[in-house]
Amino acid sequence: MAVSARRTIHRDGVAVVALATVGILSAPGAAQAWGPAVHQEVTSRAIDTLPKGLKSFYKDHRLELPSLSVEPDIPDEGRDRRFTVDKLMRFPFWDLPRTEAELKAKFPEAGDVGRLPWLIEENYARLVEAFKSGDKEKILTESDRLAGLVTDLHNPLALAENSDGQKTEQHGLWVRFGTRLPEAMEKRLKLSPDAAHLLDDPKAYLMSIVNMTYVWLDNLLYADELARRGKSGYTEIYYEAAEQRLGPLLRDRLSQAAGDAGSYWYTAWTAAGRPELK
Fold first, then answer.
1. Strand partners for 8
2. Phi then psi for 245, rounded to 5 degrees?
3. In angstroms, how far is CA 106 from the centroid of its own chain?
4. Residue 91 CB partners (closer than 8 Å, separation 6+)
5. Cβ atoms of residues 147 and 43 within 8 Å
6. Which one, of 178, 156, 196, lies nearest residue 46 by Cα?
7. Count of CB atoms within 10 A of residue 261's CB?
8. Does a structural domain hold residue 278?
């Protein structure tokens, strides 16, 4: 399934237009595409997107979700938590196989690009089973992990071989955008996710997320360059400029992540027969 999008971000009177029809790639050093504060905020806001019956369960057990507990636990899948598909084909990725088996059959080297979409598929399946079993601890653990993986898939850098800006002389971009900028914005990072909705095809929707995330990569690189321009380093002054230029994109990605995380939870619960939860 191919998805096209045209979106515009306005930066100090300059309109930056993104036009693309697909995309997917990877991440550097630390495998997670976002810092702990981002995962906590997105998971917390994902609860707010849920319909009344399901929302009450998650709210009642909010602090039992691993990433929202007193001592947060955010798992790291290492190199698997990435998807550098531009090592396999040029953009746009019209012929990208939709299953991991098909991808590996077509590209023997596919084992080196990461497994982020497939990790989400596997986690979603485990959440469905957890709902069916009624095991509260498993439901919360799998929900939390699924939200984290879905959130990673909304970071354009997590889908790009140039994930740290190393190819464009923007070294350190991975941490600047995914961790330090959200921390610098703190309470000003106000998310506005859409309500959770049922996903007709959870597997196919993953490729839609990939496409709609990758479309922002060039905007992200350009905005970081503008924020750095004329400055001696990545100081507080840089982050003030980065908030102005990258802040709207960051809010968009994380708001979408919260809505999609809630949608995967809601869809998994529905697939399990909408069992009563306590």
1. 17
2. -90, -35
3. 26
4. 20, 22, 23, 214
5. yes
6. 196
7. 28
8. no
Asked whether the beta carbons of 45 and 193 are under 8 A apart, the reply is yes
* Total length of the chain: 278
Q: How far is residue 65's CA from residue 16's CA, in Å, rounded to a whole number?
A: 38
- Which residue ranges in the chain fall short of pLDDT 50? 1-29
Residue appearing with tokens 């959200």: 182
pLDDT of 77 reads 61
Q: Is residue 276 part of a domain?
A: no
CATH of the domain at 15: 1.10.575.10
As a whole number of angstroms, the distance between CA 250 and CA 236 comes to 18
Q: Which helix (H) or strand (E) holds 5?
A: strand 5-11
Is-contact 145 75, C-beta < 8 A? Answer: yes
Q: What is the pLDDT of residue 235?
A: 95
pTM: 0.87
Q: Sign of the C-alpha dihedral, residues 226, 231, 233, 237?
A: negative
Q: What is the pLDDT of residues 199-231, one digit of tens each?
A: 999 998 998 898 889 889 999 999 999 999 999
Instruction: Look at residues 23, 5, 50 and name the one whose alpha carbon lies nearest to residue 143.
Output: 50
Q: Which residues of 63-77 are buried (b: 16+ CB within 10 A; e: fewer)?
A: eebbbbeeeeebeeb
Whole-number Å distance between alpha carbons of 263 and 249: 21
Q: What's the domain count of the chain?
A: 1
Helix (H/G/I), strand (E/B), else coil: 16: strand
* Residue 277 counted as domain residue: no
CA dist 261 and 151 (Å) reads 7
Range of the domain at 173: 5-271
